[in-house]
Write a structure and sequence with these properties.
membrane; transmembrane helix; 72% helix; transmembrane; amino acid:proton symporter activity; transport
């Protein structure tokens, strides 16, 4: 028996609710991932995720871990809604003959979903990365200024701290990018985002669907709550690690500010080549465990909200009892 059809508004609301809950829970880990991926061998500020978070709290306070969260919370609703709804749409179109989807068709549906979501994902990531990495750049400049002052004064402690540079807001960043580069400024790194998100969806959605199917007691029933959550976590973390090299390149390309002596890049291949030459192949796995820790609960929560049908209940309450 085919699954009960869910209305498009319900799909969009479920995706949005899941995105808001997930981002709120895991955003500090995502910030650590961005900072770890952006630091190059010449100026390493952080040795691990925990070291990054501890230093961030010390220098920027607790809410420093949520720099850029407002961008995600604003745009994650349409992003996750488009991703989940597009995957459902493509799966529905590819299964019109009533037969169970083959693995190839499941991968095609995931490919379509990943392609659709970059409309929102690219500008969201572009703005978020600038805000997340601003603290690392500021800390690096402060450390270098202190070292220079110590060198000038012998072994004496520096007595005057350089004033902190004002940190831009997402609105200011978006305005500057649009003024200087037009709409293309917000879509810098679009190719790298596609190379990350399309393979991610190709791996994630078929893997989730098959893991979720394993936990169904009968073909007509939905999988239990915990099965949907675990399937989302496992599929999300596996897909995240698989595409992490593209995520590292995307993060570097979308970062507008560079630390001292850090490489600049002209495109995807140039970035990948310089990372391989200067930092070695292991650099492509920077932040991989952070990304897995972000994506696993994010997609676990998303699938639970989606399969529980929270939006259907809300829409039912708004419509009231049927005559």
């Amino acid at each position: 028996m085919a699954d009960k059809q869910i209305s498009l508004p319900a799909k969009l609301i479920n995706g949005g609710i899941a995105g808001l809950i997930g981002v709120t829970c895991v955003f500090p880990i995502d910030l650590a991932k961005t900072r770890l991926q952006n630091q190059q061998n010449g100026q390493r500020m952080y040795t691990s995720m925990s070291d990054c978070l501890i230093k961030t709290i010390r220098s920027e306070g607790y809410f420093g871990m949520y720099r850029g969260a407002a961008v995600n919370l604003t745009l994650v609703t349409p992003e996750k809604a488009i991703k989940l709804a597009a995957n459902d749409f493509f799966r529905h179109q590819l299964s019109k003959d009533g037969q169970k989807l083959t693995l190839l068709k499941e991968m095609l549906a995931g490919c379509g979903a990943g392609t659709c979501q970059v409309i929102v994902t690219t500008p969201m990531e572009m703005l978020k990365i600038q805000l997340q990495d601003a603290g690392r750049i500021a800390a690096q400049k402060k450390m270098l200024a202190a070292q220079a002052q110590l060198s000038a004064q012998g072994a004496a402690q520096p007595s005057v701290e350089a004033p902190a540079a004002p940190r831009p807001t997402a609105t200011q960043l978006a305005r500057d990018l649009l003024r200087n580069h037009g709409i293309a400024g917000l879509y810098k790194g679009l190719g790298a985002t596609l190379l990350r998100d399309v393979p991610f969806s190709v791996v994630y959605f078929p893997l989730f669907a098959n893991l979720n199917q394993l936990g169904r007691p009968a073909s007509e029933e939905k999988a239990p709550f915990y099965v949907s959550f675990l399937a989302g976590c496992v599929a999300g973390s596996a897909a995240a690690v698989a595409v992490n090299p593209c995520d590292v390149v995307k993060t570097r390309l979308q970062s507008l500010q560079r630390g001292l002596n850090e490489d600049t890049y002209s495109g995807f291949l140039d970035c990948a080549r310089k990372i391989w030459r200067h930092e070695g192949p292991s650099a492509f796995l920077k932040g991989a465990y952070c990304r897995a820790l972000v994506i696993a609960p994010l997609f676990g929560i998303a699938q639970v909200v989606y399969f529980l049908g929270i939006a259907e209940s809300l829409l039912g309450l708004l419509r009231g009892p049927q005559a």
